[in-house]
Amino acid sequence: MNIYTEAPSNWKDLEERTSKFLTELGYECEIEKDIETVRGVVNVDVIAKSKEVPNTIVICECKYWNKAIPQTVVHSFRTVINDYGANFGIIISKKGFQSGAIEGVKNSNILLFTWNEFQDYFKSKWIKKKTVEISKATKPLYDYVSVAFRIFFREEYNSLSSENLELFEQLTKQHFDTAFYASNNLYLSLETREFDIDMFEMMFNTAKKDFRKDFSSYEEYFEFLIKNAENGIKDFDNLFKKELRKTNLI
Length: 250
What we know:
Blueprint: H1 11-24, E1 27-37, E2 40-50, E3 57-63, H2 71-84, E4 88-93, H3 99-104, E5 110-114, H4 115-121, H5 123-137, H6 139-145, H7 149-152, H8 154-158, H9 162-182, H10 197-211, H11 218-240
Parallel strand pairs: 3-4, 4-5
Antiparallel strand pairs: 1-2, 2-3
């Protein structure tokens, strides 16, 4: 399964989607950027810089051509990467690459991808960052449906009328799955407590059954969780007539 539902529709869309993807991976990106190389100024489709120190610089060439990319394009791009001193170069092609182009990047810092291959190469890193991001955003819902709620918000829980107590139980049952699957802890290895892509894939397939929904992309899945969680948080906030939030972060 791909990260995104839709493929780029034109060359400009390919640039913008490439920038969006790398931004979601934690890079700072610029599109159609003039860069100064040892041979002069060159305009590149996308340049991405990591926020970590030391910085990693990635330059992307986006080719929305209706034919495979030839070796000459690769050789020219390798010159730009070397002259600028970028760590990596990525060419993303609509129709793939000729055999000479593939041969031309061996033992180099150039990566060749179709759009789907580009997504797949960074899939594990993207999903890891997304699960952490969504887990933080949906934590209020997780706190509402967890058994610890009655401890941390004992006074508010005990003040519920019998009618509202019944509503609380209904809301907990209704929104539990969303809070459960939105929690990053679900996708951590039991041994290392690090993100486990295999665990994610297994739970993702279970989520499709529980929600009775066949998601077309990982992006659609996460957007579904966010929307459901926002609705759930509103339901609980309205029940208590205030926002109950634990201050500790996950």
